[in-house]
């Protein structure tokens, strides 16, 4: 690829602002983003100008170009201050996608500042990375137990066969329970926090206030763990970098919460969906018990972060058929790159078959998901998916795949619901049995202490504990220890 290291864009070559742009977020994009990527590719080549809520953005579509943007951080900068349109105050007022980018944390730092921040994440996460340390072992056991408890609750509420939403009744509460434990939250995190993260990522009209709420909760958590350290990620981040202020640690936790709840949850749902919709190669990997392969294959077809975070050109550079000007905004599309990769599976880029590990769902280059976080997330996804396969004798979608409700947004390819008709197997966990919910109050070790100090981490929607599945969950996790300390 020609990058013309020191060349400036030739006079007269089209600029992003001068090109007509097609809005990316349409109902067609919600239902069939692949067709939109293909049309853009056939019109413009590997890089296309698109409109994102009224702002022109370069969307990078081909695998080779996406990899170049992800790997070359000297040209493709992360700090939003490199964005010319923002610096020149040309963005629409309250442009909803900006809220998340104004939260200055590891992902949006460059150079030495980025390397130091990344190291803090890495060392704080390392104890949880594998099952050899006490923290790693305990977390693994907890994830499996939470999954079993949720399946038992489902059986208690809806019977051993019936209808369920595997997004709202299984995946989201599971990840909230994991986050509560891993982060050392003294009060339970509620579904409301996940909805705020959706609002921020999808660019909802209230993205700004939603971001502030989630950030506020994480900052209070940081302050709490500073005064009461435990064996959790928040406390380990402080150990790793004691100079972190509550506000900065809150920002880092906020970003981790996005990945741990929303992105990990989407990887669980998207993997389950590929199996349920009958993707033959995905199913074959399930049949042979290769869950890691199942997740990789599903991530190739439908990566949870369809389009990665924006990059900003550090100088004029040619990419695809265009000259990108210094300060232009660029969005690398993992979903489009994967389509390209699958289409060229037998070409020069990959050997005779595409390795499923060539997927870019974890990113690539200096900002890729840190290895400890990947291990952790991979364990959570395979456990969550594996427990469903283990305990469900049958599960089928209750909607045709092309009628499933997807979220509208540029970043995440996520289902609003994953509705199934199910039948549990004979050995599935049942509420009340030893080890089932009710027997498990306090599974979130470290939770429940000093909850009052964090009042407002998660607003409680329906009184103490609430009703229905989430209420049962709250009682299960915190038992009689709520508000103690
Ligand atoms: C299945 C779940 C996950 C997926 C698919 C995923 C994917 C990614 C991707 C694609 C990036 C790079 C984004 C970009 O370059 O624009 C990233 C970065 C990151 N992820 Fe993950 N991630 C997952 C889970 C997690 C978890 C559980 C954590 C921590 C609790 C985490 C922590 C991070 C951090 C700290 C970064 C920023 C790295 C940097 O900028 O240097 N991730 N992740």
Description of the molecule:
It comes from Streptomyces heilongjiangensis. It is a single chain. The protein is an alpha+beta fold. The protein has two domains: 146 residues, Uridine Diphospho-n-acetylenolpyruvylglucosamine Reductase, domain 2, CATH 3.30.43.20; 335 residues, Cytochrome P450 (Cytochrome p450). It contains 17 helices and eleven strands. The strands form three sheets. It has a six-stranded mixed beta sheet. The chain has a three-stranded antiparallel beta sheet with strand order 5-11-10. Helix 9 crosses helix 10, helix 12 runs parallel beside helix 16 and helix 13 runs antiparallel to helix 14. The chain starts with 21 loop residues before the first strand and ends in a 7-residue tail after the last helix. Bound molecules: protoporphyrin IX containing FE.
Counting helices, strands and paired strands, the structural category is alpha+beta
How much strand? 5-15%
Question: Which stretches of 5+ consecutive residues score pLDDT under 50?
Answer: 346-352, 434-470, 472-485
Radius of gyration: 22 Å
CATH superfamily of the largest domain: Cytochrome P450
- Count of domains: 2
Give the names of the bound compounds. Answer: protoporphyrin IX containing FE
Helix content: 40-55%
SSE arrangement, N to C: EHHEEHEHHHHEHHHHHHHEEEEHHEEH
Mean pLDDT: 87
Please tally the helical runs, counting DSSP H or I stretches of 4 or more residues: 17
Outline, from the CA principal axes? globular
The CATH topology of the largest domain = Cytochrome p450
How does CATH name the architecture of the largest domain? Orthogonal Bundle
How many β-strand runs? 11
Task: Report, as a whole number of angstroms, the end-to-end distance.
Answer: 61 Å
CATH class of the largest domain: Mainly Alpha
Strand order of the largest sheet: 1-2-3-9-6-4
Oligomer: single chain
Largest sheet: 6 strands, mixed
């Amino acid at each position: 690829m020609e990058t013309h290291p020191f060349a400036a864009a030739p006079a007269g070559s089209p600029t992003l602002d001068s090109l007509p742009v097609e809005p990316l977020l349409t109902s067609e994009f919600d239902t069939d983003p692949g067709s939109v990527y293909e049309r853009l590719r056939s019109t413009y080549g590997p890089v296309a100008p698109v409109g994102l809520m009224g702002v022109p953005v370069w969307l990078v579509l081909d695998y080779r170009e996406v990899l170049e943007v992800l790997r070359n951080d000297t040209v493709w900068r992360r700090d939003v201050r490199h964005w010319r349109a923002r610096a020149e105050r040309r963005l629409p007022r309250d442009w909803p996608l900006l809220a998340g980018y104004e939260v200055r944390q590891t992902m949006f730092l460059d150079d030495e500042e980025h390397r130091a921040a990344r190291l803090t994440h890495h060392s704080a996460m390392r104890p949880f990375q594998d099952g050899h340390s006490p923290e790693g072992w305990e977390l693994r056991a907890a994830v499996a137990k939470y999954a079993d408890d949720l399946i038992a609750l489902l059986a208690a509420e809806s019977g051993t066969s019936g209808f369920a939403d595997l997004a709202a009744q299984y995946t989201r509460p599971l990840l909230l329970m994991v986050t509560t434990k891993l982060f050392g939250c003294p009060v339970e995190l509620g579904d409301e926090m996940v909805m705020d993260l959706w609002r921020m990522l999808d660019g909802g009209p209230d993205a700004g206030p939603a971001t502030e709420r989630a950030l506020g909760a994480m900052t209070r958590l940081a302050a709490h763990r500073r005064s009461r350290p435990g064996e959790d990620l928040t406390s380990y981040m402080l150990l790793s970098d004691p100079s972190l202020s509550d506000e900065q640690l809150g920002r880092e936790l906020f970003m981790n919460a996005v990945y741990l709840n929303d992105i990990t949850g989407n990887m669980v749902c998207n993997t389950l969906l590929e199996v349920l919709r009958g993707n033959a190669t995905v199913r074959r990997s399930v049949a042979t018990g290769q869950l890691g392969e199942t997740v990789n294959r599903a991530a190739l077809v439908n990566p949870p972060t369809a389009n990665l975070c924006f990059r900003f050109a550090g100088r004029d550079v040619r990419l695809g058929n265009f000259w990108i000007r210094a300060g232009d905004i660029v969005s690398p599309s993992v979903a489009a790159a994967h389509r390209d990769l699958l289409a060229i599976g037998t070409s020069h880029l990959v050997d005779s078959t595409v390795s499923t590990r060539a997927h870019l769902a974890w990113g690539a280059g200096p900002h890729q998901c840190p290895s400890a976080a990947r291990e952790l997330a991979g364990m959570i996804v395979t456990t969550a998916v594996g427990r469903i396969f283990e305990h469900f004798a049958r599960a089928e979608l209750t909607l045709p795949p092309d009628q499933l409700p997807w979220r509208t947004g540029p970043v995440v390819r996520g289902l609003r619901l994953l509705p199934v008709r199910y039948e549990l197997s004979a050995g599935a966990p049942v509420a009340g049995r030893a080890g089932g919910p009710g027997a498990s109050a306090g599974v979130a070790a470290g939770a429940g202490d000093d909850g009052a100090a964090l009042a407002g981490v998660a607003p409680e929607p329906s009184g103490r504990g609430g009703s229905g599945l989430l209420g049962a969950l709250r009682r299960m996790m915190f038992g009689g220890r709520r508000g103690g300390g």
